[in-house]
Amino acid sequence: MRHHARIAVGPVQFRIGSDWAAPVAALRQLYAGYPPDDARPADATVRLFAARPWRRVLRPAVHIGGDFVVPDALPLPLSMGLLAAEMGMNLQVALGWRRHMLLHASAVARGGRALIMSGESGSGKSTLAALLGEGDWRLMGDEFTLIDPASGDALAFPRAVSLKNEAIGEMAARVDAARLGPLMAGTPKGDIRHLIPRADAIAAMHEPARPALLIFPRFGGVPAIEPMGEGEAFVRLTEASTNYVALGEAGFAALTRLVRETPAFGVSYPDSASGIALVEQLWAEAAR
Amino acid sequence: MADTRYRAAPAEALRIEALGELTAIFDRRSMQTHLVVAPMPELLAMMGDAPCSAEALAARLAEQFDLDGEGDAAAIVAERLAELAALGLVARA
Amino acid sequence: MSAMQTLVDLLAGRRDAASLAPRDWDGVIGVARAEAMLATLACRLEGASLPPTVAALFADLRAAAQVAQAQSLWEAEMARRALALPGIEFVLLKGTAYAAADLSCSAGRQIGDLDILVLAPDIRRAENALLNAGWEWVKSDPYDDAYYREHMHELPPLIHKARDRMIDVHHTILPRTHRITPDALALVSDAVTTDGGFATLCPADMAVHCAAHMLADGDLQGGLRNLWDFHCMTRDFAAADPGYWGKLDGRAAMHGLRGATHRAARLARDIYGATLPSGWNRHDPADRWYRRRLLARDDWGRATDFPLQQAFYIRSHWLRMPPPMLARHLWTKWRKR
């Protein structure tokens, strides 16, 4: 394709091709600090393309293609090309990756031990991870956490954090502006702005961490901590995994081990500060 | 039908892990995970290798757990067996 | 060299995997994925000298293909249990049949829906038995439903409500409207039984069906994989039975599919390097359009040669329907866009 880039995030090497220069330039800027490995063949391909040649210039609409596609997905305007690239990359990992069990979860690590937070979008798992990642935690990822079936370890997938709506202001107040991508207002997912993880988190992206605490955050309501049984955690994580079924017995073994060895809690919180406080409290009291 | 005879999945086909109040059963033939509660795991364990009917199973259950063998125990067991058959964990013999 | 050419060269064994530059794999992996053949390639190149990350990716794919294949065979087992009650016999078709018979083409092969063949008089009872066992109609519009029932060679697709897997119940191997009408009774009565107790088409019919599915019933989408199936099975069947090609010729003629079967054999020779016996080893100038269509993909995995694709799309419908019906069908479909 006319414009392209190669990006390695965690264990996945992407190849992104585009009919337009802008999305690729924006990606390059966002991922400039990630160690490149240009000789390495790509595991996954993302294509950003115009459905018809003239739509490159006339009301350009970015279609998301690649190894795996969502049928009937609506294209995005060119101003949201970076979001299209992010969605394309997520899709390839969610549907194509088989080496690890993929959890739709954020994660941070401290001292080689991982705190994994799983929840629907809107649960605040991304924001909590981003905030913790600015403190004395290593950000492992805001969207996907990989579990190695052989060792049971958690592996990082520290793509650029996708900040949404209120989280944008919250983070912008704390970090160097150079670590923020362009603001994309009014996308189908609301306002979006990417945050480049700290350099030490990127440098450590291949270091595994031992799962020590599972949290299922829920934004809203009074602060509350609810211990969760192994069975419920298992069910929730099968729902949070995009490839559990495809992994067969390896996935079953990895997940039973994870929920047995890792204490799990549901956490409700009304704002980021209390969320962080509850998480730190659980880490101090209950983490394995 | 209480007189339908079923055969349980061979033991080597299943990997059974207790997870607190639930039991996770992985079926190596279908690659499916089934989450069940009592008395499903007990029922499966009790069936052994030979085909058996709901009536026979209800009688065995009554004996083992010292239950009253009267009433509609066989009908309840028949329902559970039909559910297990839908999951493929037992098959009509 | 294009990635598509490299892919077929690797599959055919004409090219050593070690001779690829690391970045050549980008395109090969991309097009193999687009053709649903990456796990097939991974199995074909097991043990070959590969860049470490490619070897790791291929190992993942082989493991995943095994899981997926077990799931597909389980669908066949559940269909067997459902159809055993009313005593309906059925024959497995396509990918599930290849896996059940443990054919070499099933290594890494992606299997979509479960396809089974039952005799036309049994089809209503088969439908009922499946509905009772948890399958249900895929919600579709009345036109499609009526179209299937009146003109196609299968029931409208059913999906299992708990397992979310589709089953296609065929009563012959080409649509009723198709100009060619294969002998469905012969297909079923000459079926053979696998070690696991499933019925599959006999070796000659299996290759005829494979060719029909690829050339007489489709617009050649996914054709490279179907051709790989055809190539592997005819090679293996012929190795086990010296009279195989002769039987295949006779069976293809009986079903009215001699043209398609011979073309499939020639394409397998041209693309995968199959060796053909004398009666089969011919040349047809029209084959080049098929070769072009089969290899029409760029190094990013995108389908190329749009006019040719459309030509094959129209052709596939042309084969299936008498012209006035085709016009009506395309009109109804286009209006809905």
Please render the helix and strand layout as text.
The complex is a heterotrimer of chains A (288), B (93) and C (337).
Chain A: E1 3-9, E2 12-18, H1 21-30, E3 44-49, E4 61-66, E5 76-77, H2 81-96, E6 101-110, E7 113-118, H3 125-133, E8 138-141, E9 144-147, E10 154-155, E11 161-164, H4 166-172, E12 184-187, E13 190-195, H5 199-203, E14 210-219, E15 224-228, H6 230-240, H7 249-261, E16 264-269, H8 272-286
Parallel strand pairs in A: 2-3, 7-14, 14-16
Antiparallel strand pairs in A: 1-2, 3-4, 4-5, 6-7, 6-8, 6-9, 9-10, 11-13, 12-13, 15-16
Helix pairs in contact in A: 1-2, 6-7
Chain B: E1 5-8, E2 14-19, E3 22-27, E4 32-36, H1 40-47, E5 52-53, H2 54-64, H3 73-87, E6 90-92
Antiparallel strand pairs in B: 1-5, 1-6, 2-3, 3-4
Helix pairs in contact in B: 2-3
Chain C: H1 3-12, H2 24-34, H3 38-44, H4 52-84, E1 91-93, H5 94-100, E2 114-117, H6 123-132, E3 135-137, H7 142-151, E4 158-160, E5 166-170, H8 184-189, E6 192-193, E7 199-200, H9 203-216, H10 223-240, H11 244-254, H12 258-272, H13 287-294, H14 306-320, H15 323-335
Parallel strand pairs in C: 2-5
Antiparallel strand pairs in C: 1-2, 3-4, 4-5, 6-7
Write up this protein.
The complex is a heterotrimer of chains A (288), B (93) and C (337). Chain A is α+β, with helices and mostly antiparallel strands and 288 residues long. Chain A contains 8 helices and 16 strands. Chain A folds into 2 domains: 3-96, no CATH class; 101-160 and 197-286, Phosphoenolpyruvate Carboxykinase, domain 3, CATH 3.90.228. In chain A, the strands form 3 sheets. In chain A, strands 6, 7, 8, 9, 10, 14, 15 and 16 form an 8-stranded mixed sheet that branches. In chain A, a hairpin with a 2-residue loop joins strand 1 (3-9) and strand 2. Chain B is α+β, with helices and mostly antiparallel strands and 93 residues long. Chain B has a 3-stranded antiparallel sheet with strand order 5-1-6. In chain B, strands 2-3-4 form a 3-stranded antiparallel sheet, with no helix packed on it. In chain B, helix 2 (54-64) crosses helix 3. The mean pLDDT of chain B is 89. Chain C has 337 residues and is of the alpha+beta class. Chain C has one domain. Chain C has helices at residues 3-12, 24-34, 38-44, 52-84, 94-100, 123-132, 142-151, 184-189, 203-216, 223-240, 244-254, 258-272, 287-294, 306-320, 323-335, and strands at 91-93, 114-117, 135-137, 158-160, 166-170, 192-193, 199-200. In chain C, helix 10 (223-240) crosses helix 12 (258-272). The two termini of chain C are 38 Å apart.
